[in-house]
Each structure stands twice: as structure tokens, then as C-alpha cells.
Automatic annotation (TrEMBL):
The gene is argD. Keywords: Amino-acid biosynthesis, Aminotransferase, Arginine biosynthesis, Cytoplasm, Pyridoxal phosphate, Transferase. This is Acetylornithine aminotransferase. It is found in: Cytoplasm. Belongs to the class-III pyridoxal-phosphate-dependent aminotransferase family. ArgD subfamily. It comes from Paracoccus aurantius. Pathway: Amino-acid biosynthesis; L-arginine biosynthesis; N(2)-acetyl-L-ornithine from L-glutamate: step 4/4.
């Protein structure tokens, strides 16, 4: 008999009833060190007092109003996003997938407004993940995600990851946009070199193609900058944000320049819940905290400490790990064993991690993880690795 919850996930036999900072407490009372953070979502840890206060204060005033009216909390969050980024405007969504959908629509609308509606091809990349909607699976194009869901939405062409020659050969004055994660998350914490991102920006400028960055996983302070593309010193035309921006409350955003967003006039897009007061009250608090330079400096300091300890861990387990990669607290441990086996060994050591493609174990802890929890995490990973060696 089919479970009452549609069985689209292979779930671990674990359930959590509470959280405190980097710790998730299971229904049997066991404390797990949470290095997955809901896959880069709980950016400020579980039950963060400032976020709980922002949410409950808002909950006592008004939960939901339609986008038929002005929503002050939404305007405040949009102001913060515009103030701290390249963007001139923001649309608030409930998820990263919805942000991907709008980004795709915005690209198409941009070219339609330019009188060139046939210019719709978006270059995307192997190993990419942009969500599970029909548009987002067509964009990423992975066999695993699209199988059985055809016919796929047309207009995407996948290129090999990190192959600049392939991009140079593919991009033309008929290319509508390039859509890329500065660091692939689901694809295995695979960073694009800063020089390569700069080259992609140059190729877009030369051909007129829009640059769409998917910073759903790598954005919101995860890499030690507010957004990962800042390392390359470039800006996109459109950017997708989600996960960390809500700190655990469902929230996403599409940020865009005035030029890229020019076609998105009244009636071209909408959402019942997108930009809801509860979500935006939390999102604005998250932005206030994460965008502070002192906070980002701490993320970088902690990332350095973590990295140093992980390099030692890798060296101590040469049959389990191959290396460490990523940026800031978006960490990938390239494995010589199946990452899923390490995740399971981690459960036995009461630590939560997340597998990714390309034989990679992901560590995406809350950005405010303490030094003591970093040390504890490495000790538990060390014991988990030893379990696999045994
Ligand atoms: C880079 C990237 N884009 C888009 C998405 C989709 O976001 P959501 O699951 O919130 O719809 C994800 C989710 O993992 C992601 O990592």
C-alpha cells in the first residue's frame, strides 16, 4: 500500500522534534550535530532567538495579505536585497524552484520585449540543479530527474561543467542567457574558477546574452561573501536566491537589474504566498544579520578553522577521503567510498551530513556554528570514517 506521504524520498529512520543552534534533537531525545542544516537552509541554526522573535512578533500582527496590496515587510526585505546587491528589484518566492521558474520567464520576456521572441535558448550545465518543476528539470537536464517526465520544456542546452572552450563555442548572438551556479551544490560542491565566471560574464556582454546566477545554495553568506559571485568581482543580470534567506521559513527571491526585469510589468507574474509577511519578516532579519561585514568575517574565520581540521581528517583517512573543496562553509569532502555510506556512519556517530553527486559528502553547517562545534564535528567525522575502515 502506498504510504500516506507520497514516497518520493528515501528517508533515514530519524525524526526530529527540536533544535538548538547546530543541534537537532530526535524524537528519542538523541542530540545530533547538524552539518546539513536542512541542506543549507538553517543558516542561523535551529530556534535562533532573533528569528523566533521576528516570526512570533509578525505572527501576532498579521500572517498573510494578498499581493493585491502593499506588504511593508516585503518592501523592507526587497530594500535590503537591493541595498546589498547588484539588483535594482526583487520578486519574493516561496522556494528556489519558483525562483528558477521566474528567472526563466524573465529571460524569455526580456527577449520578447526586445522584439526577438525566438531568442530563447538558455545555456545550462551538466551536474546543475535548479529545482524539480518541469522548467527547472529541463534546465538542468539530468537523466535522473527528467526520466519519465517528457516531453521536456524546450529552450535549454546543457554544456559540460567548467569547460570554457565548450561555452565559447556554444554562445552566440542568438543565446538568450547563460544560467549557472557559481558553485554547484547537488552536483558535488564543484566551484567554478573566478576567472571562468569572469569569462562567462565577458562572453555574455559580447553576445548580449543575460547572465543568470543560481545562488540558491551558495548564496546568503554560505561562502563567506553575501553572494558567491562577489569573489569573481562580477555581477549577474538575474539571480535566484532561496534556502538560507528564510533561515528555515520557506522563502526565495529573484533579483534583477532594471534592464533585465523591464518586461515584468503588472500581470506578467504573481504568487499567492510569495512575499508573505511572515516569510519576509524572518527574511529581513536574516538579511540584517548575515549581510553585516562582521558576520561574514566570522564565517570566513570559521571556514578557515574548519578547513584546516578537515585537511588533517582527509590525511588521516586516505582510504575514505580524497580531498576537501568548496568555499567558506559550503564544504565538500570528495570521497573514495560511497558518500551515502559515510552519511549512515555519521548517523551512528550522531552527526548529520548530506551526500551529493560526484562522490562528495556535503557539509553545510549553520553559518554561526561555534568553534567548539567545529571541533566536535571533525571528531565525529573521524569516528564515522573509522567505522568504514573497520
Ligand atoms: C542551486 C539550487 N537551485 C535551486 C534549488 C531548488 O530550490 P527549492 O528546493 O527551494 O525549490 C536548489 C535546491 O536544492 C538548489 O540547490
Amino acid at each position: 500500500m502506498i504510504p500516506h506521504v507520497l514516497p518520493t524520498y528515501n528517508r533515514a529512520d530519524l525524526a526530529f522534534e527540536r533544535g538548538e543552534g547546530c543541534w537537532a534533537i530526535s524524537t528519542d531525545g538523541t542530540r545530533y550535530l547538524d552539518l546539513g542544516a536542512g541542506i543549507a537552509v538553517n543558516a542561523l541554526g535551529h530556534a535562533n532567538p532573533e528569528l523566533v522573535a521576528a516570526l512570533t512578533e509578525q505572527a501576532g500582527r498579521i500572517w498573510h495579505v494578498s499581493n493585491l496590496y502593499h506588504i511593508p515587510e516585503q518592501e523592507r526585505l526587497a530594500d535590503l536585497l537591493v541595498e546589498h546587491t547588484f539588483a535594482d528589484t526583487a520578486f519574493l518566492t516561496n522556494s528556489g524552484t519558483e525562483a528558477a521558474e521566474l528567472a526563466i520567464k524573465m529571460v524569455r520576456k526580456f527577449w520578447a520585449e526586445e522584439g526577438d521572441a525566438d531568442r530563447y535558448e538558455i545555456l545550462t550545465f551538466e551536474g546543475a540543479f535548479h529545482g524539480r518543476s518541469t522548467g527547472a528539470i529541463a534546465a538542468a537536464g539530468s537523466e535522473k530527474m527528467v526520466k519519465g517526465f517528457g516531453p521536456l520544456m524546450p529552450g535549454f542546452r546543457q554544456l559540460p561543467w567548467g569547460d570554457m572552450e565548450a561555452i565559447k563555442a556554444a554562445i552566440t548572438e542568438r543565446t538568450a542567457a547563460v544560467m549557472i551556479e557559481p558553485i554547484q551544490g547537488e552536483g558535488g560542491i564543484r566551484p567554478l574558477a573566478d576567472a571562468d565566471l569572469r569569462l562567462i560574464r565577458e562572453l555574455c556582454d559580447a553576445t548580449g546574452a543575460l547572465l543568470v546566477l543560481d545562488e540558491v545554495q551558495c548564496g546568503m553568506g554560505r561562502t563567506g561573501k553575501l553572494f558567491a559571485h562577489e569573489y569573481a568581482g562580477i555581477t549577474p543580470d538575474i539571480m535566484m536566491v532561496a534556502k538560507g534567506i528564510g533561515g528555515g521559513f520557506p522563502l526565495g527571491a529573484v533579483l534583477a537589474t532594471e534592464k533585465a526585469a523591464a518586461g515584468m510589468v503588472a500581470g506578467t507574474h504573481g504568487s499567492t504566498y510569495g512575499g508573505n509577511p511572515l516569510a519576509c519578516a524572518v527574511g529581513a532579519k536574516v538579511m540584517e544579520i548575515i549581510a553585516a561585514p562582521e558576520f561574514l568575517a566570522e564565517v570566513n574565520r570559521k571556514a578557515g578553522l574548519f578547513r584546516q581540521k578537515l585537511e588533517a581528517l582527509v590525511a588521516a583517512h586516505p582510504d575514505v577521503f580524497e580531498g576537501v573543496r568548496g568555499q567558506g562553509l559550503m564544504i565538500g569532502l570528495k570521497c573514495l567510498v560511497a558518500p551515502g555510506d559515510l552519511v549512515k556512519a555519521g548517523y551512528a556517530e550522531h552527526i548529520l551530513t548530506v551526500p551529493a553527486a560526484d562522490a562528495t559528502l556535503r557539509l553545510l553547517p549553520p553559518l554561526n556554528i561555534s568553534d567548539a562545534d567545529i571541533a566536535e564535528a571533525v571528531a565525529r567525522l573521524d569516528r564515522a570514517a573509522a567505522r568504514l575502515e573497520a
